[in-house]
Specification:
The structure is a homodimer. By secondary structure, chain A is α+β, with helices and mostly antiparallel strands. Chain A is built from 5 helices and 11 strands, in the order E-H-E-E-E-H-E-E-E-H-H-E-E-E-E-H. Chain A has one domain: Roll (Pnp Oxidase, Chain A), CATH 2.30.110.10.
Amino acid sequence: MSNQFEKTPLNQVKRYHTRGDYDRDTIYPIVDASLICHVGFVDHGRAIVIPTIHARQGDNILLHGSSKSRLMQLLAKGGEACITVTHLDGLVLARSVFNHSMNYRSAVLYGSGVLIEDPDEKMEALRIFTEKLIPGRWDDARQPTPIESKATKIVRIPIDLGSAKVRTGAPGDDEADYALDIWAGVLPMRTVFGEPEADPRLKAGVDVPNYLIDYAASLK
Amino acid sequence: MSNQFEKTPLNQVKRYHTRGDYDRDTIYPIVDASLICHVGFVDHGRAIVIPTIHARQGDNILLHGSSKSRLMQLLAKGGEACITVTHLDGLVLARSVFNHSMNYRSAVLYGSGVLIEDPDEKMEALRIFTEKLIPGRWDDARQPTPIESKATKIVRIPIDLGSAKVRTGAPGDDEADYALDIWAGVLPMRTVFGEPEADPRLKAGVDVPNYLIDYAASLK
């Protein structure tokens, strides 16, 4: 079975189409590597874009929020969403202003919401969110009560269409410009964690857990 | 004159409304501190969300792209956009799963595109983009030719409405949970630059410019 999404007018990468990729094996790692996504939806005829935490469960994106949130209410009724994830990996300094660029990995996904109502399925989704955000946290933290679970809406969005767009490497200048005395190259960018900062009200004698020390060290 | 955006159903922060802020003095620094934004627009009835470089010129957002890009064509015709900028500042580990959160600064702006056609205005916009991306670069790089300028569409989007949403500080747990033997606090996150990497085809004898060394050092 092909692991590629169908290419349609909706998800086709048009500009720099050679940077486009429709393979789940390319798209999903980009989605998973980001702690947040930007969700777009239509409300009263206008596009609204909201940053939110996401997780992936197979070919579904999980989103959660307050039962009262506009986005969650819309998705719970089957509303359509566009979910975009972007990583900036560097600034690309070409010799010409025109050829300046960025190195990036982005993924754009399309689908419609399905409300998760089964309490066990909901609890499993909360576990997936928590473990994606901070691996090891679910078993350590105080888990949700039925009342807390009820205050949270969770939707899954089966991914109907997706595409990735990736740029890597050195600048591409016009051939004549390579002779210019102008520095060219890449200024890399990345996201890092700092040192864990204890809550001022932390109970005496509670140490930073090992899973958090390891996680903080994973992005240095 | 008030520096606040009007609060309407479109831009009002509903969830955790105390985190909402409508002051340009709060919103604009959030917008300016990010190298990219996520732009939402409606195409054939669906919301599409695209990451792109932005710059601000007073009460306008500048966007640019290929003359052939779907987004730029739509905005050039006066299309509406939602422009969202998000910074992740940390993971907030509460004692309960339910109260986990993130520290973040986000801004959501609304407006409609106006095509910039005047060549001088266009060149000034390209200068603003370049200087925002890499301060000092405009005077060093080879500047756009008329043909390159023609291949680029630039729109300005007068900001009609805007809001910011910000969370800072320690977790907020249920009072009873503070007695639990669970570590709580914040894992800070930030974006950093690495060391400049020269283009393999860099002309011999061209050193990394001082403005780039300074810029790389500004996010360590």
